[in-house]
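[Automated response] Your request has been received and processed.

Submitted sequence:
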Amino acid sequence: MTIQNPEKLKRSQHNLADQMAQLIPFKALLPNPNLIATVPTRSLYTYSEEERQESLDLHPSSFLHVLYPDYGQGPRKKGIARYKSIRQKLLDFKDRGFFIPDEKANFYVYTLTFDDQSYSGIIAGVSTADYDKDIIKKHEDTLQRRVALFTKYLEHVQFNAEPVLLTYPDNPSISNWISKIKSKTPYASFHGADGGSHSLWLVSEKEMQLELKDLFSSIPAIYIADGHHRSASSALYTHAMQQENPGFSGLEPFNNFMGYLIPESELQISEFNRLVKDLHGHSPESFMDALSTAFQIEEASYPKMEKEKNTIGMYLDRTWYILRPERDHDFTHDPVESLDPQILFTKILDPILGIKDLRKDQRISYLYGKNSLAQIEEEVNSGNFAVGFGLAPIRMSEIKAVADAGKVMPPKSTYIEPKLLSGLTIYEY
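Generated structure:
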């Protein structure tokens, strides 16, 4: 599948919709209600090999069997052969009644709860034309190799199994609409493979669908919270399919991809902290001298140390420090340059520690923020790393400022929850 002149395609889509966020109902494949506790899976990267094998062995209806279609049948297929096997396995799951196709195009209200944190949002089709026109806004860079790989995957499997996590400004009217749906009997409620409690409602009534579309007509933009590569590959797939179908109407499923939309206030944004293997030839003393030219430095202590914006925690030589940029740092002229991960990169990691590529340099590692300051101490004290840095979580307003400016954030700036199940709703192309 090749793409020719995608900019021309983008221009041809310009009049498909007004400049507003579009939500599109779709006919999902849904797990059989009698099997819904065992069909959806966690994201693949969260499984250890032992957990994955146990789930595959114990649950023949687990969606993992679709993602690992040749499990127990010898060497694992690769590339296009594997993608075709995944597609065939999904069709097999439909034939066996593990998935049931919806007869009507629906919206879906979905609630998931972990401990005392609950999320409620809407699963819907969202338009790749909106993605192209920056109504669906991005804040992360994408790797061309990964986008091309995911696009090839979509070409052969022809479905989305996990929605892109999207967010919109809090809106009381949309919240009331969701509450009205949640007052009804759900399609299913279950305890999921991720340890959370999940409930799913189907919204097939035309008046409720039209009401939701009308409510979103006042939302000028929605933001990708998690799933930038999947969004980019879906857009690329759309362009390719439109070239193969020059008479397309705009109503075909390939014009959209699946999203889960929740209000901004429900997103949980955590930081990624950093560990660096060595001091790039510095002694601890010369490293501190180099830092003192750009930062005010004071000793601190963990766990009492509070993380604040525009401060960087540092653990070096069994001591915690707080680094505050000198007053000459301009925090206002650029939404990226004012981010703490970028300050850390431009003032410490690059010029002092010699780390030029945050994605590829093997000397740097990242720790998801929750409870990771204690891990930083352990790793540095053990000698596995020379220094660790703790950052404050980035705020949603900062993410939006970066996206609105058409810029991208440094790699590993945010860890955003909720993390969604795969195989709860399937969007077929």
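Summary generated for your ticket: The radius of gyration is 23 Å. The CA atoms of residues 128 and 235 lie 5 Å apart.
If you did not submit this request, please reply to this message.
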